[in-house]
Amino acid sequence: xxxxxxxxxxxxxxxxxxxxxxxxxxxxxxxxxxxxxxxxxxxxxxxxxxxxxxxxxxxxxxxxxxxxxxxxxxxxxxxxxxxxxxxxxxxxxxxxxxxxxxxxxxxxxxxxxxxxxxxxxxxxxxxxxxxxxxxxxxxxxxxxxxxxxxxxxxxxxxxxxxxxxxxxxxxxxxxxxxxxxxxxxxxxxxxxxxxxxxxxxxxxxxxxxxxxxxxxxxxxxxxxxxxxxxxxxxxxxxxxxxxxxxxxxxxxxxxxxxxxxxxxxxxxxxxxxxxxxxxxxxxxxxxxxxxxxxxxxxxxxxxxxxxxxxxxxxxxxxxxxxxxxxxxxxxxxxxxxxxxxxxxxxxxxxxxxxxxxxxxxxxxxxxxxxxxxxxxxxxxxxxxxxxxxxxxxxxxxxxxxxxxxxxxxxxxxxxxxxxxxxxxxxxxxxxxxxxxxxxxxxxxxxxxxxxxxxxxxxxxxxxxxxxxxxxxxxxxxxxxxxxxxxxxxxxxxxxxxxxxxxxxxxxxxxxxxxxxxxxxxxxxxxxxxxxxxxxxxxxxxxxxxxxxxxxxxxxxxxxxxxxx
Length: 564
Prior knowledge:
Blueprint: H1 2-22, E1 26-27, E2 30-34, H2 40-44, E3 63-69, E4 79-83, E5 89-96, E6 101-107, E7 119-123, E8 131-139, H3 144-148, E9 151-153, H4 162-189, H5 195-214, H6 217-221, H7 226-251, H8 259-281, H9 287-296, H10 299-314, H11 318-342, H12 352-395, H13 406-418, E10 423-429, H14 432-439, H15 441-454, E11 461-467, E12 470-475, H16 480-498, E13 508-514, H17 521-537, E14 543-546, H18 549-563
Parallel strand pairs: 13-14
Antiparallel strand pairs: 1-9, 2-3, 3-8, 4-7, 4-9, 5-6, 5-8, 10-12, 10-13, 11-12
Helix pairs in contact: 1-4, 1-12, 4-5, 4-12, 5-7, 5-12, 7-8, 8-10, 9-11, 10-11, 11-12, 14-15, 15-16, 16-18
């Protein structure tokens, strides 16, 4: 809503300011042409050289003259203004009713920029009530728009007027809105380092620079020469097209645009940069046709882009929906400039208000598209991470008992050692094969589940099943031996209460060892496993420990109590 209000206000003020200015501006009535070697005043004072009925200007000649007829009721003009484009010089003549001529010349490099966005200005020779004609001669004009948009004005658009100031504020607000996505992209690029974020930032920055160069803001803040802004605007246009093509190339989801169209987009970007650089650096090469050829050369880029959007939309691209809506005004601007710049019987139209609207729509919609893509990619990555975590947990979990397996303890051992888990207990059920042989594997599985319940995990105890009837406890604390022994002794009780019909109690033997230094799991397990087999060799249903003396004594007393 804020963007729409900004756009409506911009349009209203732009039209209002234009109407206010039109009442005092003077437009040319006739035009003539000649060579640079001819004297300007000679051409201006020759009535037969002037064409007053044909408004279709031509830049074929080296010098084009525009005549402005003044009436006694006109406000006396002070400036000659026209659209910026490459030229060599401007010659201005003030002709009085008695034939007196006052002349001034300004080289292209000395032409100042006008507050009227995209225009240059030149001060007129003294204009009095006796002045009847103003003649502006332009040497080597490179674009018909310089002739078509020329006018005389009593003052430059200084920004002192209410409408002018409001218009500048609105354009500044538009520039500020274009700066916001740059902050947005900088924040989110740290999370998702995708190339389309950089291309969107480059595109937004080029649009922001284009608005500054094509409006009065550049004059307010920097006041560069008109020709500097002219070639800057040309380069910025090529950069905008190139960055837009690369943004589309990287933004459309994989598989949702035809591969040939995607491959063409970087070539379109390179072509746009080449065209703009050549046009800015060599504006007078094939001067009469270069501007038209330059404009027409962008037609293939426009076609590739439109086809890319259509194809991506047809394939169901979500990103293309945002781009298609956001780029529609810019595509319309491109079509208008293309048609009016190439077709000779149309006056050139730059559609600046529509261009500003296009900047606004493009940045807002593509920024929304980028945000939507962020959310989609984050959701996909979160889902993939969840699935990966689930698969990893499944690969580290024993499907029968639900305990973690050997792969889990080997992968976690270094971290758990750092957390204080330094005691390993290896538990093996006594005569488990006989249970399977007599009662069947279903009962054997039930026994294993009951054992897993008996050696339950706690804050200082982690339980694992290594395979078959072998289990492992990883413990920490001074009472690690006691915690392990209590679980071993709970096995016959839990199994008896859980699995009815067994002919004899299910007991277990256990070996317990403390880790030394940075000992790895394999070495610690080897020592604990040896102690386990010592317990089995000593008669089973007992523990052999190689831990701290106090803990070993507690285990011994527990065994003795059971034996008694």
